[in-house]
Amino acid sequence: xxxxxxxxxxxxxxxxxxxxxxxxxxxxxxxxxxxxxxxxxxxxxxxxxxxxxxxxxxxxxxxxxxxxxxxxxxxxxxxxxxxxxxxxxxxxxxxxxxxxxxxxxxxxxxxxxxxxxxxxxxxxxxxxxxxxxxxxxxxxxxxxxxxxxxxxxxxxxxxxxxxxxxxxxxxxxxxxxxxxxxxxxxxxxxxxxxxxxxxxxxxxxxxxxxxxxxxxxxxxxxxxxxxxxxxxxxxxxxxxxxxxxxxxxxxxxxxxxxxxxxxxxxxxxxxxxxxxxxxxxxxxxxxxxxxxxxxxxxxxxxxxxxxxxxxxxxxxxxxxxxxxxxxxxxxxxxxxxxxxxxxxxxxxxxxxxxxxxxxxxxxxxxxxxxxxxxxxxxxxxxxxxxxxxxxxxxxxxxxxxxxxxxxxxxxxxxxxxxxxxxxxxxxxxxxxxxxxxxxxxxxxxxxxxxxxxxxxxxx
Amino acid sequence: xxxxxxxxxxxxxxxxxxxxxxxxxxxxxxxxxxxxxxxxxxx
Lengths: 459, 43
What we know:
The structure holds 2 protein chains of 2 kinds.
Chain A: H1 23-34, H2 44-47, H3 63-91, H4 93-117, H5 120-140, H6 143-149, H7 154-183, H8 191-212, H9 242-245, H10 249-279, H11 286-314, H12 316-339, H13 343-372, H14 377-384, H15 386-408, H16 418-436, H17 449-456
Chain B: H1 12-37, H2 39-42
């Protein structure tokens, strides 16, 4: 028996007595690590001074070049989640978490080498491509396992893991700054050593997650859990094959639901600091703005757990209805609050908006499970994450370019975001319509039982 | 079918350790972010 056989799905089947509450920490071990991606920007400035040390010198990299590292990482997150989704689903969570750990920590080590020899392309390949694959595989690896362990609370379960992705940056940012400070000397800025240490720490955490994760035995149900005798209209009791899901209108409607919800949030998240200072000149200082960004991160993380848990009670479709209706109201109110100088109400609006941004990410796996069953939900979720990549382009472009256009045409900076807010509200109206059009998946898309057995190699 | 989960079951100590393993770093991160967020009201 090869050493790698311990990664097999069969070796992870839980014995009687295993507590399902061990699985969320296993998932968090991975998501808290890969959530570091949102904090990568803390390396940008130090990496512009690798040669000059105190200021950029000839031969140092510039911010535009360094910005590609994060962009590549997010692109490869989406690509790898879509490409490796089926492999993740069929190989089991331990193999996927192990692979994610190798890719993500390996990406850091290659990047450290890239810093050492001062070759930016090595960092693009290391963190961007290989690390990005670790992000994608790691992101989807625990999703279907959690849904199978928590058939009674699938939203809460996946919300817990995806909350970890939101929280990872909160750990990574101060940790990275502290490590760079520790390793900095008069001759270098400490980025290389920090990459090495982070790579090793993340490998350890993710390996622990891979070690403790388990899948439930076939037919396992939580004690006292009885599946509803009358299944709800929008909750499928049968599975849809991963590639068949792409042929359903439901997949593409939910793709747009996620894309529009994320577009509305991501533009704000990226511009929150500048926006708050420009809309409240003299009242919001740069330091206060950084506090505002911190609050947004906390609500982004908390929203993932809270909204996904709420969706277990009110249903996924209704949860997205809340996101869209509340979002439309709040985005429409922001210009009014900004114009009248109501700072606390302005802050409150964005805290709620950003909680729904996080909630959209965390609720969508359970929405997919309701539509397409549990068998391939991780792989289908992987494909859906391309909506995130698309939103990552739409959101910031909308906010930045419309603001730039407004300012160039003489609109005061304090009012330059108003049109953007109304456009975001219109996008959310479109999202509302897409969500409204979601119906139960037609029977012809469901897998027959014998097809399911063939697909997973079960005799 | 072999499984490496050959114990009698999960103990509450194992559960506590697993949750502390992820909970402590997460709480540290939230604490740091909250400390920074206070600047919104004081800065």
